[in-house]
Amino acid sequence: MDTTIPITESIFWIGVNDRQTHLFESIWPLPRGVSYNSYLIKDEKTALIDTVKHSSSTNFMDKIKLVLPNDKPIDYLIINHMEPDHSGSITLLRKLYPNIRIIGNKKTLEYLNDFYGITENVQTIDDGDTLSLGKHKLQFFITPMVHWPETMMTFDHTDKILFSGDAFGGFGTLDTGIFDDEVDVSYFDDEILRYFSNIVGKYSAMVQKAIAKLKDLPIGIIAATHGPIWRKDPGHIITLYDKWSRNEPEKGIVIVYASMYGNTEKMMEAIARGIGTEYEKCLRIHNISTTHLSYIIRDIWRYRGLILGAPTYNMKLFPPMNSLTTMLENKLLKNRVIGLFGTFTWSGGAVSTLSEFAQKVKWPLVEPVIEAKCSPDAENIEQCVLLGKNMARIINDTVIS
Ligand code: FEO
């Protein structure tokens, strides 16, 4: 949406859509771009909440002028998050609005200096502090590690809007509108989970602390820094975030496999058939050589059962699978069950490394573990079918609260 849009009578979305960046943080694919949301509150004092990535600064400044014509000043810039996708326009903003007062917590102001060398006309706030703009009363809640140490949220008690930073936001540009009642919510649910599981999920314990801190606020609208603004049903995204950060999976199984010449793939197919005999729903199969890790991690975060299979490569685990297990180990994800399979030709390595991974993350192992030499024989295939059945039975018996 290449315009400014009122959220309430005096609060405006002045965010931008980025369709040029292919990889968010130079890692995560953006097949449908991403929005950087910024908000402007017009009152006796004017406040801007977050800025946008530097590559969109010109568009952003034009939008400010649309809401504030005739060189009207901006009194405050409130920084909820210092990552440069939101702080990247601060330097230019200060050039155009030299008297703007920058508000953040102690950590924010440390990073403001470290990233941009800005130390003047800044104001430190603490957790729970308030700021009156006239009609609008803002309150600040420090929510560290959702997503960085300085992250905070700002609540407008007047219009009941929570400006939540990265929390509750995800990938995808805002095309059909900016509100949850104007966009394809199921698309954004998936992309918010991809954002959460890959970027914020490691800090799930801190997300839980933030949700507990906000629980008594009368939130009417959630305005995150990415993705839609939740005005019709803010409870929807809070419930999802709560579930994801509690490590509460859904019933379902993900198979992630690699196969150089089709032999490990034959094992995957036998496992899938085994699953199908007991349980036909919610099976996701990913070929790790053709699917970006972020989509795989999203599905692993969603479902309880995971089966990993790969060939041995140079006496070790197939490298892309090794990247996945390394990333998963870093995520601290809990409450999953795991099955393993693999192949080797002259020396093992894949299955033993996968077994070490399963022990490290402490996910219960579903038997049998299958390791085939070169190509699976009839007994290997039978064992694969059994693994699929055993996993399906466990997932069927899972009680999801
Ligand atoms: Fe959207 Fe943590 O930056």
Fold and architecture overview:
- The strands form five sheets. A seven-stranded mixed beta sheet has the order 1-2-7-8-9-10-11. Strands 17, 18, 19, 20, 21 and 22 form a six-stranded mixed beta sheet that branches.
- The longest helix has 20 residues.
- Helices cover about 35% and strands about 25% of the residues.
- The protein is elongated.
- It is built from twelve helices and 22 strands.
- It is an alpha/beta fold and about 400 residues long.
- The chain has two domains: about 240 residues, Ribonuclease Z/Hydroxyacylglutathione hydrolase-like (Metallo-beta-lactamase, Chain A, 4-Layer Sandwich); about 140 residues, Flavodoxin domain (Rossmann fold).
- The structure holds MU-OXO-diiron.
- The site of MU-OXO-diiron (FEO) has 8 residues, from helix 2.
- MU-OXO-diiron binds next to helix 2.
Q: What is the CATH first-level class name of the largest domain?
A: Alpha Beta
Number of alpha- plus pi-helical segments: 12
Q: Which structural class matches the secondary elements?
A: alpha/beta
Quantity of strands, as a count: 22
Shape: elongated
The radius of gyration is 24 Å
Helical content band: 25-40%
Largest sheet: 7 strands, mixed
Spatial separation of the terminal alpha carbons: 39 Å
The CATH topology of the largest domain comes to Metallo-beta-lactamase, Chain A
Mean pLDDT: 96
Bound compounds, each kind once, are:
MU-OXO-diiron
What's the assembly state of these chains? Answer: single chain
Question: Order of strands across the biggest sheet?
Answer: 1-2-7-8-9-10-11
CATH superfamily of the largest domain: Ribonuclease Z/Hydroxyacylglutathione hydrolase-like
